[in-house]
Structures are given as C-alpha cells and as structure tokens.
Design goal:
It holds the Pfam family Vma22_CCDC115. By secondary structure, the protein is mostly helical. The chain contains 2 helices and 2 strands, in the order H-E-E-H. The mean pLDDT is 88.
C-alpha cells in the first residue's frame, strides 16, 4: 500500500508541474498572438500611410508579381524540423534569405518603385516581426499540445493507481 501512495504522490507532483507548465505556455502563446496582432495592425497602418503618400494606384495589387513576372525566391521561409531534444516533436524555424546568397531574391519593397516612403519599409519590418512571432506562437502551441497529452496520460495512470 505504501508503494501505491508513493506512486500516487509522484504522479500528482508531476501533474502539478505539468499543469503549471501548461498555464505558462498558454500565457506565452497569448502574449505572442497579441504581439502578432499589434504588429499586423501597425504594418497595415504604415502600408495605408504609404499608399496615401504615393497615391492609391502606386501601392496596390497592380504592383504585385503575376504569372508572367520573372521567377524569384521568397525572402523568408518557414521550415519544419523534428527536434531530437523534444522527443520527435516538430518545431518550426523561420529563415530569412539574404540577397547576397541568392540573386533571384528580390526585396518586395522594390515592387513599388525605387524611391518609396519610409512607411513602406516600416510596414515591411512590422510584417517580418509578425511572421517571427507567429512562428514562435506555433512552436509554443505545439509544446502546449504535447504537455496536454502528457497530462491526460498521467491522469489515466492516476486513475489506474487509485483504482487498485
């Protein structure tokens, strides 16, 4: 009987720790999503200011590449990787490509002209920051899901121990 109470204490302590971890991960995820939202709003605001300064036809979908445009590479790419430290869990990583590495990389701000308002550069930086925070939020969400699975497994083990 003493062994069963010892096992129950270990399970309860682990459950407590995992629950606290889950709560801190939830808080971190909420903060990251708020940061994404604020960065997106700021980027949209700067984009609207740039459109106001340059004119509504100078910053519009007409400047975006079409199917007939020359090929180019993305400036930022998100890669999924299985992390051995996290026992096979997927983690995501954002990689920014520098122009010196690949000549097919174009700065998207240049689609709108050579002399663009500073607001367009600010918008680009805010959207980049939002992308970085979004990738971090996905990683935190993945950790949270794994923590919840562990909690459920421990609850089942606890129920089995108490049923004895």
């Amino acid at each position: 009987m003493a062994e069963a109470t010892e096992d129950l204490d270990k399970i309860c302590n682990t459950l407590d720790k995992l629950t606290l971890d889950a709560l801190s991960l939830m808080e971190e995820e909420i903060l990251l999503k708020l940061n994404v939202e604020n960065a997106m709003c700021g980027g949209e605001s700067h984009l609207a200011k740039a459109r106001y300064i340059m004119g509504q036809n100078s910053v519009s979908c007409l400047q975006l590449p079409t199917e007939n445009s020359p090929e180019f590479s993305a400036v930022a790419k998100v890669y999924a990787s299985e992390d051995d430290k996290l026992f096979g869990e997927k983690s995501y990583e954002l990689q920014l490509t520098k122009k010196t590495e690949d000549e097919s990389v174009q700065d998207p701000v240049r689609w709108f002209g050579v002399l663009v308002p500073q607001n367009l550069n600010y918008a680009q930086n805010m959207f980049r920051q939002a992308l970085q925070w979004a990738v971090q939020a996905v990683n935190v969400q993945t950790q949270l899901e794994q923590t919840i699975i562990k909690i459920q497994q421990l609850k089942a083990a606890k129920a089995a121990v108490t049923a004895k």
